[in-house]
Amino acid sequence: MLERFVAYYRVSTRAQGTSGLGIEAQKDAVLKYLGAGTNVLAEFIEVESGRRSDRPALERALAAARVHRAALVVAKVDRLTRSVAFLSRLLEAGVDVRFADLPAIVGPTGRFMLQQMAAVAELEAGLISSRTKAALAAAKARGQKLGGDKGARLSSDAKAAGRAAQSRQAMLRALDLAPLLSELERDGNRTAKELANALTSLRIPTARGRTEWSDVQVMRIKRRLVGQVSNKLSQ
């Protein structure tokens, strides 16, 4: 059976997206990597910063790859993400990812290499954190005053701001999952339990990074989406 692919391209600015600058170079790189006669089922273009983790076009590309059991192909690693957490999330999404600039990353060996890349980046972040903590501890030992009263309580405004930030993150996550939930519903998964089982089978990570979903989690997401629609209609 001919191997199937879903292509994903990303540019950082709308000018690049409109003019095609950057996109055409990525398409050429993917074409050279795959070769003539390859079965590319769909192409998805994202105009978004690489620092953002909410990528609607990427979510649709991943969903298409899962539905068709195709591999996701990207021109360069940095076109996908430079974020360790996002790369880890992608690895948990259950999709085979290929990079035109790293042709050796294929199958289980390629997945292992990606995991090692994420692990090295995470180690570097951890070492930086450890060095910062050590420097602060040394400064404190010298008698240098650091920060304020450690026993101070958060103000009600600070607590409210924290809850608002958590709510925004939860809403962003719900909006990211909306296209996939709609597709799963079209495939016959009508109840929250059926949707939860489908998300689990697709290895879509939950907000806490787990891959086992419950019907309660699905209902919370759907309530957030309904609330978002209601808010827009009332504006």
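the 2nd protein, sequnce then structure:
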Amino acid sequence: MRLAATVSLLALLSAPAWAQERTQFVLAISWQPAFCETRPEKPECEGQTPDRFDAGNFALHGLWPQPRSRDYCGVDQATVRTDEDGDWHELPEPELTEGLWTELQVAMPGTQSGLERHEWIKHGTCYAGDAEDYFADSLDMLAAINASAVAELFASSIGQRLTQAEIRAAFDAAFGQGAGERVRVSCTDDGNRRLITELTIGLTGDINGAESIADRLLDARPTDGGCDAGLVDPVGLQ
């Protein structure tokens, strides 16, 4: 017991000053089939097919600077009201290169509803960089998870139940012991089933490519695990 405690103390002392103290960002990634069970009228849900990217991979929801009260940085009140009213297609379009915009439309199917405009206005304006930086960093973090044991677990469990413990263990296997403690599972009930809809993931430090995710996870503060278990929903209304 004393040896384990000593190892834990040494790990804490060697960690960056911000580790265990704060979470700088929350990355929100969606399991889109489950989201579409509750919002089938959304254009991105009407067009979802079994061969589309988001049928078997996580989709980007957003990257949120913390605390959550930190939003709409430098945004005028008229634009804030437009966003809060849900008129996302009326919001200013983020300035993105053609290549990044093409990638974003695949990884964030909500672009069909103007989600990227909402995410940039509400959260991206508080990020240290322009829209290109914000979405590039978001996509890097998403890509790291979709190339990991976490995505493999979900893809192999479609139609089956996963527990919070299994999901967190997959993060540990992919990104290092303790990574799973930075992950929160969100679920929703569709009337008959409890579905896993989203993972929110704490990150702290500078995002510098997909390979930086392990450090960003372990530098963030642990969080409660959220939903204890839920179904990995397949494409199509069940």
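The mean pLDDT is 91. The CA atoms of residues 150 and 215 lie 17 Å apart.
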